[in-house]
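Input.
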Amino acid sequence: MALFAQSFLDDLKAQTDIAAVINEVTPLRKAGASLKGLCPFHQEKTPSFTVNREKGFFKCFGCGAGGDAVKFVELQQKVSFPDAVRYLAQRAGLAIPEADGGPEARAAAAERDTLLRIHEEAAAFYAEQLASPAAAPARRALEERGLTGETIRTFRYGFAPAGGRDTLHTRLTARGVSPEWQVRSGLVVDRGGRLSDWFRLRLMIPIARDTGAVVAFGGRALDPGQVPKYLNSRESPIYTKGRTLYGLDVTKGAVRKHNYSVLVEGYFDLAQVWQAGVHPVVASCGTALTPAQARTLKRFASKVVLSFDPDAAGQNAAARSSELLVTEGFQVNVAVLPAGHDPDVFIRSNGAKAYVERLTRSQPYLDFLLDRAAAGVDWTRPDSRKRFLDAMLKVAATIPDAAVRDQFADRLSHKARITESVVRELIREAAAQRRTVAPALAVPASVRLRPAEQGLLWTLVHRPVEGLGAMARLDPEDLDGLLAAPIFRLAATLAELPPELLPGLLRERLSGGERALLDRASRDDAPVAPPADCVAAFKRLRTERDLADVQHEIDALQERSEMTDARLSALWDRKKELLTRLEALT
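Output.
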């Protein structure tokens, strides 16, 4: 059996922006529909290395290297396939199934695959039922919204019967799905020993991954007395609400082609926008946008136009989503609709052309936020102006692009009636204070730092430019196990600020024990080791740790007399690589 279930690998690739992974190694520039850069696997002066973000693969036309994100990590970090998968899963925040092919791994893989098959069967069943006589209320609801046959087929709308002989439970039983699996899918429930459908008398909306695999459903009530109005699938091993963007399976080609997406809240908002001819559109499944959803969308586009409900809740959601998107590096605009009109209602009332005009006149997010926050300010009261300024400084601190921050400072100084230089200084301080304080670390005075740790800490305090340059050559894993690791990691988060501020900011943000470590290492007149030697020492320590882990695993396999195991062969190759690397660092 494969080391990892295909469903897990599909999830991993869906959550991984291959361009972001590769851009950390070699800078990429847009070149038509792809991205281009210098190949990291051979020396070249003219870029021949291309990345297709939408399809998730890279190819070098110089040396022939190519593959997906997992393959890139394998080649670039010189690690095995399982290690590359683990690296990307940790980066994406996904739980990593065991890769040893043991009973638990096989059970998890079987569960995910079975649940996917059940959901696909359910989607087909609901779609068939939409044509049944009992589905007249569902068809009428779609007609009242003005949705065409093409839209209904594209988004695979369906109908969940109220009961009787035609139920999903009956269909799944006929297909050989056991009662246990039906209940585990969440689509059938055990009501005191009697199995019945979770969704009954509802207009059904399949929710799919961007690959097209159905993982959940939303059910719209058809009877006026039904509650809740929308009933959704519960989270499961194949579905996490905060990781799924509704409609992306249909719209991802248009989103990628145009490099932007309209972001709406609801299922039918998306359907109306798509039917209006605006095909680059996704929905947040009725929740506030999450970082995982933003990262998924980043694989396909760099610009977003928010089109949320105009009520207070919708506008608050727009503000929160905008801040998150700006932090993730998106260019964000906000399309404001009249009171009482979400995209669904607006398009039905005013037509597609009027909605497109609203999108065209959408306002840059920062202007929208400034205007919205300024609307309730009493400019004659200093305390009111200060509250406005404090709120906007928190926003400014999240803006990653320095040029955009400067533009925001200009607008903010004008709105708040404060000189531009003062606002810029306040924004810089806010950006520095935004980072969370590193975890507290109580360190006895008797504990000694390694010479390399002392040397780099000294350099960060006395020669911050040189110290930050050394930090840039370190990988996060190079710091694992170091006593001063929290200090180094905090310094890395402050790298974009003026270097002369670094010593003061470190002392201000560190815990008492960490500050004592920093002071102890920096009190000498000269460093105990130059920065280059410190970097080499940290990489040596990491390689030695990796080598010890590999040797431990080899010993365990040999004790079990599994000398022919493919894993053992791979471990020997890994050990040779590490020994070669260690020799080069010595």
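The CA atoms of residues 3 and 99 lie 5 Å apart.
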